[in-house]
């Protein structure tokens, strides 16, 4: 198997983001975004997806969390796109239903190169720590658009911490499943012979 890694940097007037990713890692994570709950979610994402992930973000948190969360998602999405290259021999499709106490997240992903995002559900509270709850949905959208994913996500529950964490864990497991190499396949999983 070829090396499925990437290092991507994004610098704007609002943020400076550095991401390194190893799709075939052990779940090791070093996360520093300045948003405690977001760090926790990215660490959980790396651990449950078995992705080695480093994220360093310096953003305009004196304004709010929007630019930092969005730009981390953009950069992480670009890192997945780069690391997966032509997506040769991956399983491509996956779905996971992941609970966390009363909350349940549903994730369906196609690592297709065709970005699309659909979401069903509401968050029960407006904030979890320093993270605005709706930014979890925006993170998923921005990641999907930049990684080239068709991503359908939904969540139910009564506690926004649980709802958001279930989404991040579900996404991690589904992406791990979808990006696994199928040893029986020598090409891409498409009649077009390209993703």
From TrEMBL:
What EC number(s) would the UniProt record show? 4.2.1.19
Biological process according to GO: L-histidine biosynthetic process
Protein's UniProt keywords contain Lyase? yes
Alphabetized Gene3D superfamilies for the sequence: Imidazole glycerol phosphate dehydratase, domain 1 (3.30.230.40)
Q: Which SUPFAM superfamilies match?
A: Ribosomal protein S5 domain 2-like
InterPro entries documented for this protein: IGPD_sf (IPR038494), ImidazoleglycerolP_deHydtase (IPR000807), ImidazoleglycerP_deHydtase_CS (IPR020565), Ribosomal_Su5_D2-typ_SF (IPR020568)
Q: In which pathway does it act?
A: Amino-acid biosynthesis; L-histidine biosynthesis; L-histidine from 5-phospho-alpha-D-ribose 1-diphosphate: step 6/9
User: Catalytic activity annotated for this protein?
Assistant: D-erythro-1-(imidazol-4-yl)glycerol 3-phosphate = 3-(imidazol-4-yl)-2-oxopropyl phosphate + H2O
Please give the Gene Ontology molecular function terms for this protein. Answer: imidazoleglycerol-phosphate dehydratase activity
Alphabetically ordered keywords of this record: Amino-acid biosynthesis, Cytoplasm, Histidine biosynthesis, Lyase
Cell compartment(s), UniProt: Cytoplasm
CC annotations in GO: cytoplasm
- Tell me, in one coarse class, where this protein mainly resides: cytoplasm
> Known HAMAP family for this protein?
HisB
Family statement: Belongs to the imidazoleglycerol-phosphate dehydratase family.
Protein's UniProt name:
Imidazoleglycerol-phosphate dehydratase
């Amino acid at each position: 198997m070829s090396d499925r890694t990437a290092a991507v940097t994004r610098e704007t007037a609002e943020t400076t983001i550095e991401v390194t990713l190893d799709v075939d890692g052990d779940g090791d994570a070093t996360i520093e975004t300045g948003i405690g709950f977001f760090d926790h979610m990215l660490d959980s994402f790396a651990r449950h997806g078995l992705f080695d992930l480093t994220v360093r973000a310096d953003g305009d948190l004196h304004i709010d969390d929007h630019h930092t969360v969005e730009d981390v998602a953009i950069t992480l999405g670009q890192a997945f796109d780069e690391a997966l290259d032509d997506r040769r021999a991956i399983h491509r499709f996956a779905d996971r239903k992941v609970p966390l106490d009363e909350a349940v997240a549903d994730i369906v992903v196609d690592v297709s190169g065709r970005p699309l995002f659909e979401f069903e559900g509401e968050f029960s509270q407006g904030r979890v720590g320093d993270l605005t709850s709706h930014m979890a949905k925006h993170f998923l959208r921005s990641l999907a658009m930049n990684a080239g994913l068709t991503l359908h996500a939904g969540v139910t529950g009564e506690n926004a911490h649980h709802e958001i964490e279930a989404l991040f864990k579900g996404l991690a497991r589904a992406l791990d499943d979808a990006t696994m190499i199928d040893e029986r396949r020598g090409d891409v999983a498409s009649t077009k012979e390209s993703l």
